[in-house]
Amino acid sequence: MRVILTGGGTGGHIYPALAIASELKSRLPDLQLLYVGTAKGLENRIVPRTGIPFRTIDITGIDRSSMLKSSKTLLKFPASFLQAREIIKDFHPDIIVGTGGYVSFPVVFSGTFMDVRTVIHEQNAIPGLANRNLAKRVDRVLLTFPEAGQYLDGSNIKVTGLPVRPEILSMYGKVSRPSGRFTLLAFGGSLGSNSINQAMVPVIDRYRNTEINFIWITGEAGYEEMKQALEKRVDVKALKCGLEMVPYKFDMENALAAAHLAVCRAGASTVCELELLGLPAIFIPYPYAAENHQEKNARALVEKKAAEMIIDEFLDGDSLYKIVEKLRKEPGKLTEMGQNMLKEARPNALKDIADEILSL
Prior knowledge:
Blueprint: E1 2-6, H1 11-27, E2 32-37, H2 43-46, E3 54-56, H3 67-91, E4 95-98, H4 104-111, E5 117-122, H5 129-134, E6 140-143, E7 157-159, H6 166-169, E8 182-187, H7 194-206, E9 212-217, H8 223-233, E10 242-246, H9 252-258, E11 261-264, H10 268-277, E12 281-283, H11 293-302, E13 307-309, H12 317-328, H13 331-343, H14 349-358
Parallel strand pairs: 1-2, 1-4, 2-3, 4-5, 5-6, 6-7, 8-9, 8-11, 9-10, 11-12, 12-13
């Protein structure tokens, strides 16, 4: 069996594809894989390290900031379809799996005109432009959020969830929120979030004489700046609250298990990890995400009473403090939010995705 995987631009598109590759390979040791991405995308640095053969096509995302930039991108489309077609003809795949991002569109689209089965997986509650256009043509549409289905015109749609890191998945059903001090976990993803970081400084100042713990992951780029900003505002050595402030945390699963509440962005991977551990959150959606999909991801859980949300534009120390304090004083509500979060978890996501692919 031969499978092409394609998806790129961000880790949110790449890592699910690699998880799918690993699961398929574990089931079919003789499986032949090929990953198609771009030379400039993050996938060009990540995928070759896995040992999966990697080929590229020349395409970039549509820059909506100007008509000229958009036009230059659109001019590349015909060539990218020809490149994708040649790769498909050379590799002879049985199935093509697209996980989103602009690179997946010409590859999956070309496959729909050839003797190949095609599958797309949409990570977010509002589908990207590529997947919205592909849904009506492919053999299977797999979703992380059921809410995404309303934006898609396809007949073979199934909600599977999103593959998450094995160290997080292994803790599903095993985490009970710790007793003792209330612990707030704040993070902004692997690169950090300047707006979350800026809000955390006055929040810690407000809680400096309170029995509360903070785990604050600033991101590599913001660590020194935030450390200095905090030290200018408070005497860090005299803090009564507990503070673990780090640029990055390799054992993220332990931080998630230790917390009572998270303050974070609303990327699909983050959301699914919180769901698996039943950790309620205050989401601060990244305002520049394509199609504003992070806000849609967050709203899906706010509506199910599993999370709160602050729009990035309105985030500051005061707005964050008020919600944290409200939830801290209502442990019953926090417990209910965590239970609602856990109800949305899909621990069998990777198995279900592989089952759907192999059923073709």
